[in-house]
Design brief:
four-stranded antiparallel beta sheet; binds pyridoxal-5'-phosphate; seven-stranded mixed beta sheet; single chain
Length: about 300
């Protein structure tokens, strides 16, 4: 598995890794992120995190005794203002392609974040689980930017690339000194695990991810067109499994509580991924990693609901 991860990083990004010292296999990306944050963050330390964010980040930062300093992504194009880290900032936790917005950061943004890490001596921890699910633009790992390899831990997993989200086989890569620190925590979280699935994941890592991405791009477009026909305004999404939309200025949390009962469709309000008050109030996240007939049925149900 470690050799397969090293071969994957070389093939896709030109990064040459020592499979023994620069790769740690984990129980999904989630354990990799937890082990890394517990290793890197101490009491009172600050971690810069895009907001909204995948929901495991803040609890783990706080479990480690740290605090999140949010970097607000602003709809509809999900860009962020220049970042000013405080004196307690230690880590930049970056997720691109980004859940829940579907944003893929561009090279200018990555360069600005790399400069920030170097200037403020931050360790970068990147969550790249959607690395192969990019429909517009291109994914560039932060670790490949000048000056970043030695200060970056890159986390990914087999979950999204091959639609096996229950498998929980992930990995952390980076310079040996940082990976060693992750391993020191991982040892007492789970020690090892999922070995039979690691054999399968190693095979999966060698498979070309492009056909799955092409199929998901078509599903993104299918759901977006359907939602527009129902009357939703759809926000742009360049990657991931997710599409965000608004229905006038309807409150998204209220809408998402009603939709399963009234329409038989489930979605998540973006406010569930954010510490900000109000800013994302009307935005609903839909998932398009579904069979086409499920997406079509959802649109039929939403149209009937809306008509009713
Ligand atoms: C941004 C992000 N990171 C990590 C994960 C989980 O990855 P894994 O199943 O490998 O723990 C998810 C799943 O929703 C995610 O959206």
């Amino acid at each position: 598995m470690r050799e397969a991860v090293a071969a994957h990083q070389l093939r896709h990004y030109g990064l040459e890794l020592d499979p023994d010292r620069e790769v740690q296999v984990t129980f999904g990306a989630t354990e990799g992120l937890a082990a890394a944050l517990l290793a890197l963050v101490g009491a009172g330390d600050e971690v810069l995190v895009l907001d909204p964010a995948y929901d495991s980040y803040t609890p783990i930062v706080e479990l480690a005794g740290g605090r999140v300093q949010p970097i607000a992504l602003e709809p509809p194009d999900w860009r962020f203002a220049p970042v000013e880290p405080g004196p307690a900032a230690r880590v930049l936790l970056l997720n691109s392609p980004h859940n829940p917005t579907g944003r893929v950061l561009d090279e200018g943004e990555l360069e600005s974040l790399a400069r920030l890490c170097v200037e403020h001596d931050l360790i970068a921890l990147t969550d790249e689980v959607y690395e192969h699910l990019v429909y517009d633009g291109r994914h560039v790992p932060l670790a490949t930017l000048p000056g970043m390899w030695e200060r970056t831990l890159t986390v990914s997993s087999i979950a999204k690339t091959h639609s096996v989200t229950g498998w929980k086989i992930g990995w952390v890569t980076g310079p040996a000194a940082l990976v060693e620190r992750v391993r020191g925590v991982k040892q007492f979280l789970s020690f090892a695990g999922g070995t039979p699935l690691q054999h399968a994941a190693a095979v999966g890592l060698a498979i070309d991810p492009a056909p799955l991405a092409a199929a998901l791009r078509a599903k993104r477009d299918r759901l977006a067109d359907g939602l527009r026909a129902v009357g939703f305004d759809v926000l742009p999404t360049a990657g991931t499994y997710f599409l965000n939309a608004t229905l006038g200025d309807r409150d998204a949390a209220e809408l998402c509580q009603r939709l399963p009962h009234e329409a038989g469709v489930a979605a998540i309000p973006l406010s569930a991924f954010s510490a900000r008050d109000g800013a994302l109030r009307s935005i609903v996240r839909f998932a398009f990693c579904k069979r086409e007939e499920v997406l079509d049925q959802a649109i039929v149900r939403l149209r009937t609901w809306k008509g009713g």
